[in-house]
Amino acid sequence: MIQYLENEKGTLKYILTTPSDFDASESLPMIVFLHGAGERGDDLELLKVHGIPKLFTKNEDYGGLRVITVSPQCAQERTWYDFKWDVISLIDEVADKYNVDKSKIALCGISMGGFGTWEIALQIPEKFSKIAPICGGGMSWRAWYLRNTPIRVYHGGRDDIVPLCMSETMVNAIRLQGGNVEFTVYDDLGHDCWTRAFEQTDLVPWLANSNN
Protein backbone atom coordinates (compact mmCIF):
# COMPACT_ATOMS: atom_id res chain seq x y z
CA MET A 1 0.00 0.00 0.00
CA ILE A 2 1.26 3.47 -0.91
CA GLN A 3 -0.08 6.53 0.90
CA TYR A 4 0.51 10.28 0.52
CA LEU A 5 0.10 11.82 3.94
CA GLU A 6 0.82 14.76 6.23
CA ASN A 7 2.11 14.52 9.77
CA GLU A 8 -0.10 15.48 12.69
CA LYS A 9 1.67 18.82 13.12
CA GLY A 10 1.01 19.70 9.50
CA THR A 11 4.66 20.51 8.92
CA LEU A 12 5.70 17.60 6.71
CA LYS A 13 4.10 15.78 3.83
CA TYR A 14 5.38 12.27 3.28
CA ILE A 15 5.06 9.06 1.31
CA LEU A 16 4.45 5.92 3.31
CA THR A 17 4.57 2.40 1.91
CA THR A 18 3.63 -0.89 3.49
CA PRO A 19 3.70 -4.40 2.03
CA SER A 20 0.68 -5.15 -0.14
CA ASP A 21 -0.73 -7.62 2.39
CA PHE A 22 0.18 -5.56 5.45
CA ASP A 23 -1.61 -6.46 8.67
CA ALA A 24 -1.34 -3.96 11.53
CA SER A 25 -0.95 -6.83 13.99
CA GLU A 26 2.44 -7.53 12.37
CA SER A 27 5.36 -5.55 13.80
CA LEU A 28 7.64 -4.69 10.87
CA PRO A 29 10.96 -2.84 10.49
CA MET A 30 10.88 0.70 9.08
CA ILE A 31 13.21 2.62 6.76
CA VAL A 32 13.17 6.43 6.91
CA PHE A 33 14.54 8.16 3.82
CA LEU A 34 15.64 11.81 3.56
CA HIS A 35 15.83 13.24 0.04
CA GLY A 36 18.28 15.74 -1.44
CA ALA A 37 17.90 19.45 -2.16
CA GLY A 38 16.42 18.92 -5.60
CA GLU A 39 13.30 17.23 -4.25
CA ARG A 40 12.24 19.98 -1.85
CA GLY A 41 8.84 21.64 -2.16
CA ASP A 42 5.24 20.46 -1.95
CA ASP A 43 5.05 17.92 -4.78
CA LEU A 44 5.47 14.42 -3.39
CA GLU A 45 5.91 13.06 -6.90
CA LEU A 46 9.43 14.51 -6.82
CA LEU A 47 10.39 11.98 -4.16
CA LYS A 48 9.90 9.10 -6.57
CA VAL A 49 13.06 10.00 -8.49
CA HIS A 50 15.66 8.54 -6.13
CA GLY A 51 16.35 5.96 -3.49
CA ILE A 52 13.83 4.28 -1.22
CA PRO A 53 10.66 6.03 -2.48
CA LYS A 54 11.70 5.38 -6.08
CA LEU A 55 11.96 1.65 -5.42
CA PHE A 56 9.01 1.16 -3.09
CA THR A 57 6.45 3.29 -4.95
CA LYS A 58 7.13 1.14 -7.99
CA ASN A 59 6.71 -2.00 -5.90
CA GLU A 60 5.73 -1.86 -2.23
CA ASP A 61 6.97 -5.45 -1.96
CA TYR A 62 10.37 -4.52 -3.43
CA GLY A 63 12.86 -7.36 -3.13
CA GLY A 64 10.33 -9.41 -1.22
CA LEU A 65 11.10 -7.25 1.81
CA ARG A 66 8.54 -6.89 4.56
CA VAL A 67 9.26 -3.34 5.63
CA ILE A 68 7.49 -0.02 6.08
CA THR A 69 9.10 3.00 4.41
CA VAL A 70 8.62 6.66 5.27
CA SER A 71 9.89 9.46 3.02
CA PRO A 72 9.12 13.00 4.22
CA GLN A 73 9.50 16.09 2.06
CA CYS A 74 11.43 19.17 3.14
CA ALA A 75 10.03 22.61 2.34
CA GLN A 76 11.54 24.67 -0.46
CA GLU A 77 14.60 26.72 0.55
CA ARG A 78 14.91 24.85 3.84
CA THR A 79 17.11 21.98 5.03
CA TRP A 80 16.62 18.89 7.17
CA TYR A 81 18.37 20.73 9.98
CA ASP A 82 15.34 23.04 10.10
CA PHE A 83 12.94 20.11 10.31
CA LYS A 84 14.94 17.58 12.33
CA TRP A 85 12.56 17.58 15.28
CA ASP A 86 9.57 17.31 12.93
CA VAL A 87 11.20 14.27 11.33
CA ILE A 88 11.78 12.74 14.75
CA SER A 89 8.13 13.37 15.69
CA LEU A 90 7.01 11.86 12.39
CA ILE A 91 9.05 8.72 13.05
CA ASP A 92 7.37 8.32 16.44
CA GLU A 93 3.94 9.03 14.97
CA VAL A 94 4.23 6.43 12.23
CA ALA A 95 5.92 3.89 14.48
CA ASP A 96 3.00 4.04 16.92
CA LYS A 97 0.27 4.07 14.28
CA TYR A 98 1.67 1.15 12.25
CA ASN A 99 2.98 -1.01 15.09
CA VAL A 100 6.57 -0.69 13.88
CA ASP A 101 9.26 -2.80 15.53
CA LYS A 102 11.01 0.07 17.29
CA SER A 103 14.22 -1.91 17.60
CA LYS A 104 14.45 -1.95 13.80
CA ILE A 105 14.15 1.63 12.57
CA ALA A 106 16.80 2.54 9.97
CA LEU A 107 17.61 6.03 8.69
CA CYS A 108 19.20 6.91 5.36
CA GLY A 109 19.52 9.90 3.08
CA ILE A 110 21.23 11.34 0.03
CA SER A 111 23.18 14.61 -0.33
CA MET A 112 21.19 17.13 1.78
CA GLY A 113 19.51 14.04 3.21
CA GLY A 114 22.94 12.56 3.95
CA PHE A 115 23.68 15.60 6.09
CA GLY A 116 20.23 15.22 7.65
CA THR A 117 20.89 11.56 8.41
CA TRP A 118 24.07 12.39 10.29
CA GLU A 119 22.43 15.24 12.20
CA ILE A 120 19.27 13.39 13.24
CA ALA A 121 21.16 10.23 14.20
CA LEU A 122 23.52 12.31 16.34
CA GLN A 123 20.51 13.81 18.13
CA ILE A 124 18.92 10.47 19.02
CA PRO A 125 21.30 7.60 18.21
CA GLU A 126 19.37 5.15 20.37
CA LYS A 127 16.35 5.41 18.03
CA PHE A 128 18.07 3.88 15.00
CA SER A 129 19.15 0.31 14.41
CA LYS A 130 21.26 1.36 11.40
CA ILE A 131 22.02 4.45 9.37
CA ALA A 132 23.29 5.06 5.85
CA PRO A 133 24.36 8.63 5.04
CA ILE A 134 25.17 8.97 1.35
CA CYS A 135 27.40 11.83 0.11
CA GLY A 136 26.81 13.88 3.23
CA GLY A 137 28.72 15.21 6.20
CA GLY A 138 28.26 16.11 9.82
CA MET A 139 29.70 17.24 13.13
CA SER A 140 32.64 14.92 13.57
CA TRP A 141 33.38 16.12 17.11
CA ARG A 142 30.13 14.42 18.18
CA ALA A 143 31.11 11.05 16.69
CA TRP A 144 31.17 9.39 20.11
CA TYR A 145 27.36 9.30 20.08
CA LEU A 146 27.33 6.95 17.09
CA ARG A 147 29.99 4.55 18.30
CA ASN A 148 27.40 1.78 18.84
CA THR A 149 25.33 2.34 15.67
CA PRO A 150 25.96 0.17 12.58
CA ILE A 151 26.69 2.60 9.75
CA ARG A 152 27.22 2.37 6.01
CA VAL A 153 28.60 5.42 4.25
CA TYR A 154 28.76 5.87 0.47
CA HIS A 155 30.40 8.63 -1.55
CA GLY A 156 31.50 9.23 -5.13
CA GLY A 157 35.21 9.79 -5.54
CA ARG A 158 34.54 12.40 -8.23
CA ASP A 159 31.82 14.26 -6.31
CA ASP A 160 32.16 17.96 -7.11
CA ILE A 161 29.13 19.02 -5.05
CA VAL A 162 29.80 17.45 -1.65
CA PRO A 163 33.55 16.79 -1.28
CA LEU A 164 34.55 13.24 -0.43
CA CYS A 165 36.47 14.54 2.59
CA MET A 166 33.18 15.31 4.33
CA SER A 167 32.30 11.62 4.52
CA GLU A 168 35.92 10.69 5.24
CA THR A 169 36.01 13.03 8.23
CA MET A 170 32.89 11.46 9.76
CA VAL A 171 34.05 7.91 9.09
CA ASN A 172 37.49 8.52 10.59
CA ALA A 173 36.04 10.20 13.67
CA ILE A 174 33.64 7.33 14.37
CA ARG A 175 36.34 4.74 13.82
CA LEU A 176 38.51 6.54 16.36
CA GLN A 177 35.68 5.99 18.82
CA GLY A 178 35.61 2.27 18.03
CA GLY A 179 32.48 2.59 15.91
CA ASN A 180 31.13 0.17 13.32
CA VAL A 181 31.38 1.87 9.91
CA GLU A 182 31.53 0.42 6.41
CA PHE A 183 32.77 3.02 3.95
CA THR A 184 32.33 2.62 0.19
CA VAL A 185 33.94 5.07 -2.21
CA TYR A 186 32.99 4.78 -5.87
CA ASP A 187 36.06 6.17 -7.60
CA ASP A 188 34.32 6.36 -10.97
CA LEU A 189 31.22 8.24 -9.79
CA GLY A 190 30.38 11.85 -9.07
CA HIS A 191 27.62 13.14 -6.82
CA ASP A 192 25.03 10.51 -7.72
CA CYS A 193 26.51 7.46 -6.10
CA TRP A 194 23.19 6.59 -4.46
CA THR A 195 21.69 4.90 -7.51
CA ARG A 196 24.42 2.29 -7.46
CA ALA A 197 24.30 1.99 -3.67
CA PHE A 198 20.54 1.42 -3.53
CA GLU A 199 20.12 -0.61 -6.70
CA GLN A 200 23.33 -2.61 -7.09
CA THR A 201 24.26 -3.54 -3.51
CA ASP A 202 22.54 -5.15 -0.54
CA LEU A 203 21.97 -1.75 1.09
CA VAL A 204 18.17 -1.93 0.99
CA PRO A 205 17.83 -5.37 2.63
CA TRP A 206 20.49 -4.30 5.12
CA LEU A 207 18.41 -1.24 6.04
CA ALA A 208 15.32 -3.43 6.21
CA ASN A 209 17.10 -5.49 8.87
CA SER A 210 16.75 -8.66 6.81
CA ASN A 211 20.48 -9.30 7.15
CA ASN A 212 23.30 -8.24 9.47
Would you kindly provide a written description of the structure presented here, covering whatever features stand out?
- With 212 residues, the chain is α/β, with parallel strands linked by helices.
- The chain has six helices and eight strands; from the N terminus they run E-E-E-H-E-H-E-H-E-E-H-E-H-H.
- It has helices at residues 51-58, 84-97, 112-123, 164-176, 194-200, 203-207; strands spanning 2-6, 13-17, 30-34, 68-73, 105-110, 130-134, 151-156, 181-186.
- The chain has an eight-stranded mixed beta sheet, with helices on both faces.
- The longest helix has 14 residues, at 84-97.
Keywords:
212 residues; 6 helices; 8 strands
